Structure formats: C-alpha cells, structure tokens
Amino acid sequence: MNEEEMLDFVKALSHTDRLKIVGLLARKPLRAAEIAEAMNLPLQDVIKHMFHLEQGSIVLRSVEGVYSLDNDGLENLARHSFEGTRLAYIPDSMMKEDARKVLAGCLKADGSIIQIPAQPGRRRVILDYVLNAFEAGKVYKEREVNLLLARFHKDTASLRRYLIDEGLLARERDGSKYWRPG
Prior knowledge:
There is one protein chain. By secondary structure, this protein is mostly helical. The protein has two domains: 3-81, Arc Repressor Mutant, subunit A, CATH 1.10.10; 97-179, Arc Repressor Mutant, subunit A. The protein has nine helices and six strands, in the order H-H-E-H-H-E-E-H-H-H-E-H-H-E-E. The chain has a three-stranded antiparallel β-sheet. Strands 4-6-5 form a three-stranded antiparallel β-sheet. Strand 5 (170-171) and strand 6 (178-179) form a beta hairpin. The chain starts with a helix and ends with a strand. The model has no long low-confidence stretch (mean pLDDT 86).
C-alpha cells in the first residue's frame, strides 16, 4: 500500500460518524438509507461519508446499492502496511552457544517467553535475558516492573520472584521500589 492509499484510509476513519458506520456494517451489509435511518443522519451526509469510506478501501458498494465492509481491502492494508513492524528477537552475537540454544528453545520469534523453564540453569539464561530490559541505577515501581515483564510473559509475578531470588533485581521490603543492583 502506498502513501496515498494510507492517507485515504486515515482520512476515511477520521470522522466519528464514519467510525459508527463501520460499526454498523460490521454487523451486516446495509443500504445508505438504512444507515441514515439507524444513525439519524440526513441521507446526503451518509452518501458523502460512504464516498470517503469507499476511497479508503473500507467499504464496497454492490450494484444494488448495498454497502458492506471491504474485507479484502482491510486485509490488504493490514498485511502490507504493518508487515515486518513487529519486534523480533535477535540473539547477541557475543552470547555463549549453550545460552543461544536455550533462548532459541524458550522464546517465540518476537522475543516473548513460551514457558518459563523449571530447570534452574535454563531459567537463569531466561532471567539474564529478561534482565536486559532493566536499566542499571534506575528505580522502578512494582507497576513498572510488571509492565516490563509482561512484554516477556503473562506470569509477571513468577518472573519478578525469580529475578529477586537470583539477586538480579533488588526491592524494598514493602515492594514499593525495585532496582537492578550493582
């Protein structure tokens, strides 16, 4: 999708009535008059909105004048516009081979953890990997720690506990502050 097509898409969705129309069409295809009635808008306004939505490849109009979502257009937008934008894990070239193998077996392509290993040695490799998300010398609130850990795995409490137990993260007794020691 080129820049002009992306701009048409953004313009098409830049009006609250158009977003509402998309919501209506997500339920079922409708004629312009049915949309106007459902939204209590003048038919002329709906026709103008439908023009923008067609230009943005969001809706299609059949020969009978029935509007529906342009699933192919939306899929094309999603596939081509956001392709390759998800972060991918790339192991450090200086990492030991055995650690690289553990990470390769425990991480998804985006760098999130498939499952926290039960074996202490393998778990330590994962914890060292996760620890890189924390800046040395910075103090974090528990909420910030959980947000960082959630990027890696949904079980933030276990990850946090393992990091503390291994001495990789330190915390105040009341849990109000966390930091990376040394």
